[in-house]
Amino acid sequence: MPATHQVTNQVPPLVGHDPIGGDAALAEACLRHADAATLESLGELGRIAGSEEAREWGRLANENPPRLRTHDRYGHRIDEVEFHPHWHDLMRTAVENGLAGAPWADAQQATHPTAPGRHAHVRRAVGYLGWTQVEMGHGCPVTMTYAVVPALRRAPELAARYEAGLTARAYQFGLAEPTGKAGLVAGMGMTEKQGGSDVRANATRAVARADGSYALTGHKWFTSAPMSDLFLVLAQLDEGVSCFAVPRVLPDGDRNVFHVQRLKDKLGDRSNASSEVEFEGTTGWLVGEPGRGVPAIIEMVNMTRIDCVLGSAATIRAALTQAIHHARHRSAFGARLVDQPLMQNVLADLALESEAATALAIRLAAAVDAGEAAFLRLAGAAAKYWVCKRSPGVVAEAMEVLGGNGYVEDSGLPRLYRQAPLNSIWEGSGNVIALDVLRALERSGESLAAVTAELELARGADRRFDDAVERLSAELGNREGLPFRARRVAGQLATCLQGSLLLRHAPAEVAEAFCASRLGGDGGAVLGTLPAGAGVARIVERAGVATR
């Protein structure tokens, strides 16, 4: 029956594109907050990210999740996790291209105002947003390795021991004494089964030893990337919850007590290992002051939350790219999908969501480069809440663009859909983050002032933006029942920040459509409902990524 199987009107594979330099919104954000040399330095990474080879790495790493080996053939406890070889290819590419801890070393070396390292965190963010579109799962250990450095600096002697390995552009997998490895990977163990986000309910105890180390006994309900070289974990001292650095291998070369009980069977993020771990006299070293473990580990969490925003922006962008690629090559009812008015409305709305998420994510990275701690404290929390919360709906709408084809695993959209909720849960789910926005507002006048100054940069550019800022101010001024309204406040704050960025930096049709839908309309509650007159064709054309 060969005649019945002629393939027509199907979409060619999406390969040969550049998700970094070929993404106008991302490339412009890089130029805006860094320079052309920074964007050029990511050219090879963009080429790899758009290649067929990298797509296969991601597919196979996802379809062959890690396996836990608790014992060897002789009955010895080994607690090792095995990964598919292509997971290591993904990790190696990320680390060697400076997406892990390298920016902290690059920034320290940037003593001259024109040195490349002065944009180290923007460069890393742009690369991370582009590269993780290949496969999101391996981003977790990359993120942890990046985020652990500022927290570890609270203990200078530990930073001196581990920072060179954490900031190296070398990937080495396997258990070995950390100072003997060229490159290190970090993980984190905060939550326990009885407490979850309430880490003050943690039951793990730490007892001081004569040599200055501590013996930790207890469990961790979620320990990220259990084959990492070093972890930050929380445990109780008499003074309260404290933070400890726990290596897998001790300085004398012996393995630390680190019993991996099982790997989590997760909805998505399947190429990455998440685990439950038991400590029994496990050796750790104090990071920061006794009883001040939460502020110490928050140094790490503040950075991982930025990557939640970047990861969600990457997920949104990956879904948008698939949708536009499909619509450009698929015809129905006598015309290409991309030329049909209602499909243009949907695609343009998806593109607005992507550009707004990208602009805000890279702005956060620029704040790290600039040392804008006050801005980050509030803007980072609001962005984490809003961008991550928007991701599942965007991916679902992109899946509908592909129709039944999008519901099939081969398309890649189901993998994105399963991944999409993660960043809204990881490092504080929606309620936790929304309440954290309120804490930042209440405890730091500097944070509110810094965000207000950012919003003022766009005042007067659009009436709908000005009205939205006034509504936000009224919400903040009404103290009654504020916790009940925390999600509303966090969302309004994030969309106002996005509006400010797009009004100042995006093309007129993008800023106009965003203000009309997100600030002056229904907030983009249902995508594909942009008002008549929106420049949808130009917005879609801008969002397309050309293939080679």
TrEMBL record:
- Domain Adaptive response protein AidB N-terminal: from-to ranges: 9-172
Transmembrane stretches in the record are: none
Annotated ranges, domain Acyl-CoA dehydrogenase/oxidase C-terminal: 291-441
Q: Which UniProt keywords apply?
A: FAD, Flavoprotein, Oxidoreductase
Its required cofactor(s), as named, are: FAD
Q: Where is the Acyl-CoA oxidase/dehydrogenase middle domain?
A: 188-280
Q: Which Pfam families match?
A: Acyl-CoA_dh_1, Acyl-CoA_dh_M, AidB_N
- Cite the GO molecular-function annotations of the record: acyl-CoA dehydrogenase activity
InterPro entries tied to this protein: Acyl-CoA_dehydrogenase-like, Acyl-CoA_DH_CS, Acyl-CoA_Oxase/DH_mid-dom, AcylCo_DH-like_C, AcylCo_DH/oxidase_C, AcylCoA_DH/oxidase_NM_dom_sf, AidB_N
UniProt lists the family membership as follows:
Belongs to the acyl-CoA dehydrogenase family.
According to UniProt, the name of this protein is DNA alkylation response protein
Whose protein is this, by species? Blastococcus saxobsidens
